[in-house]
Sequence to fold (972 residues):
Amino acid sequence: MSEYDGVSQLRADGSLRHLLSLEGLPRERIEWLLERAQRYVRPLGEPPARSNELAGITVANLFTEPSTRTRVSFELAAKRLGADVVNLEVQLSSRVKGESMLDTLFTLEALHVDVFVIRDSEPGVHGLVAAHAAPHVSVLSAGEAHVSHPTQGLLDALTVLQCKGRFDGLCVAIVGDVRHSRVARSAYQVFRTLGVAEIRIIAPPAFMPEENEFAGCARFTSLRSGLKDADVVMMLRIQKERMSQAAFPDPDRYFQKYGLTPERLALARPDAIVMHPQPMNRGIEIASDVADGPQSVIRRQVTNGIAVRMAVLSAVIEGRGGAA
Amino acid sequence: MSEYDGVSQLRADGSLRHLLSLEGLPRERIEWLLERAQRYVRPLGEPPARSNELAGITVANLFTEPSTRTRVSFELAAKRLGADVVNLEVQLSSRVKGESMLDTLFTLEALHVDVFVIRDSEPGVHGLVAAHAAPHVSVLSAGEAHVSHPTQGLLDALTVLQCKGRFDGLCVAIVGDVRHSRVARSAYQVFRTLGVAEIRIIAPPAFMPEENEFAGCARFTSLRSGLKDADVVMMLRIQKERMSQAAFPDPDRYFQKYGLTPERLALARPDAIVMHPQPMNRGIEIASDVADGPQSVIRRQVTNGIAVRMAVLSAVIEGRGGAA
Amino acid sequence: MSEYDGVSQLRADGSLRHLLSLEGLPRERIEWLLERAQRYVRPLGEPPARSNELAGITVANLFTEPSTRTRVSFELAAKRLGADVVNLEVQLSSRVKGESMLDTLFTLEALHVDVFVIRDSEPGVHGLVAAHAAPHVSVLSAGEAHVSHPTQGLLDALTVLQCKGRFDGLCVAIVGDVRHSRVARSAYQVFRTLGVAEIRIIAPPAFMPEENEFAGCARFTSLRSGLKDADVVMMLRIQKERMSQAAFPDPDRYFQKYGLTPERLALARPDAIVMHPQPMNRGIEIASDVADGPQSVIRRQVTNGIAVRMAVLSAVIEGRGGAA
Fold:
């Protein structure tokens, strides 16, 4: 049930050991993580949450694709819990990536690293590393190819919960390049598990996922139809180099058809919230008026992101004690 | 008065909030910063000053151009005051820099970053970020294009004060590529404000600033004439790729005309000090005999640099308390 | 006696000041370092050793060639002793490297850096920096061109001591690209000093060192002959771009002749241990069956590596107190 890529994400006692995917994580475990994360949330301008829960623990950030924001979010989450953090930017060719990542794992384990935070642009490395990790070691995904970004899914869920107070009865619209988006997949998984009634995907045909994915989601190629009465509008980042695939010769044309403007947002529920995983392409997938407008909760997502990462780090280390 | 790029660098109560430029900072505020910095100065070989003034505070170093030395100076200043530090190297094209920097600001603010240390090769980003920063957040310039390098200006002033005991009545000669130098501009501003009697600029015609800049400075194209009776000789770094602009076909020719040798230094006052912001091009703008000679205070500048940065960090956080 | 490149590695009182090379370090000093390192060793899965011996001390990692693993090992060693650590990646052309490294040294000294950990791909920079360092400052080599990698030599010696309980009477076989290997040179030096009876080098002719090096070592071009009855088999990393020098058109051909397979390992003593400095080229110099097999102590080497680096850091700082 909690398996991912053949690796159990939970220990025998049900505690969280790895976080590789939200797929297959039990609802109670997700709700428990959200509650825990909520305890670490502090409003902007107040001092951040801090503790010594991770004193003596070493966290390694292993990023094979650049991601300043997510790396800093994990780094600060770990440091504010008292951990030592080392950052490694690893450049590996595909051919040797698997075995090199395992040797890197074994080396860092031998240096007494306890938690590996991994981002990789190819699928499978996370599961491979987790499958070979020593029993006391945890692997957390900070993004895996197009397939998974579990802490993003958790922070999205936490944000919806804070704003809406519930998941049941909500309508969530996910808009943009759903096909290539790990953010969309993790959102779909977490909202499904938490009982969101209606998840819609809105995308140009070329960005629509395969039929066997996103089961149960209504699919729209028209932004206007898809936004109607939505409670949550999740915008995705467009990668400009992919727009030609979707037959948009330039950013303006994409914006014209799929950009979230105040007028289009007005089709959603009046209290709908707007989310974006960042970094945003203002003027391509989202208008600045919306990004900075009263319905935007984009900055709150970031604050929730560090809280979620603190909760996950704290959970895997605390659970280790129980399992020892 | 304390405005820079439309942003007030001081809070309503007069305390320092941002440090973007020395232009327009009141003399008392600058003197107060120098006094404060002096408290953090420790001689080489003694343990550095340390405190917990910044415990719980997070400082982000945001550098869009490489600068190991200044980044390390700010990083150690923050760590020795007890802050958490994250380093971000951001590569942004000019076209999207402004909005991306703002989104980066908002993201880092949402991660509870309190102080942004920014270096950027284009003018205007610092002011833009400061103008949009949340009220509890401070922005410190670690170098802005050719226009401003305020902590360098402060450390230069502190060095002169330590060596000469005063500013009035001094003659300061700034030598080299004044036209493209943020170091020269910040030095000019701080020495002007602090009452230095005579500031000279010495440069080849192509490196001479526009007429409307450096008001009140005597201009020399001859190094020998310009150095005569100077109390302080500030050498600037030459960028080799710019020498052809100045009609020097090779480094030797530049050195022949504008390099500071012991013989030329002898034209200044016998107790003149020699400064350089580093990194030095030995044998181009300065002879090693001078750089390492008895009149050189170049290493002392570095030690003063970390003290100045500690003072500025401490000041903006302390003042925040008062303003809250 | 303890000189390297004209620099004494020991202080007048015999304490360790720099660690640049194992060549010329007295046997008692090496044995003392190994004993000290042993105190910092913790088995995998247990919390790492920690202390506050380096509280208030600043360590700078200055790497001019990339080396994630060694950098992280030094970084964690320093942090777990309570030091502040700054990482600098310096890219310098050969022409200006010497003087730039000295100016970097002087700058970092002026920032109150106490220990410099340097890796450089050219010989001589380490000695140059050490020769100019202020009296309270220590320089540790993290790898120097093909000539020296002293902490690797110490961790190799510690690993052998743990596994074999002694050095005398042992036969150590060093296999691979000995000619270009700093690991081989430091191993040779440390094992010679510690009284290893027989050191063999096994290499294709093109990878065989000059005759005047590795005095007293038996030389083998046949892996089978060289491995016979060895107690310790030290495999070296092959750089693929060098294989053509050694007349191997492809990795398979190298592996066929010089790869360590279980069958070949069986020629050594039944209790022989297998070592590798990492990163490994599995399937080129070593078969995965051997790398992960029961005789491999490769991961233990990593754990010993951090212990050795903690011991060296602790030693140079402790000794400084005595010399002050």
Remarks:
- Chain B has two domains: 3-149+303-323, 150-301.
- The mean pLDDT of chain B is 94.
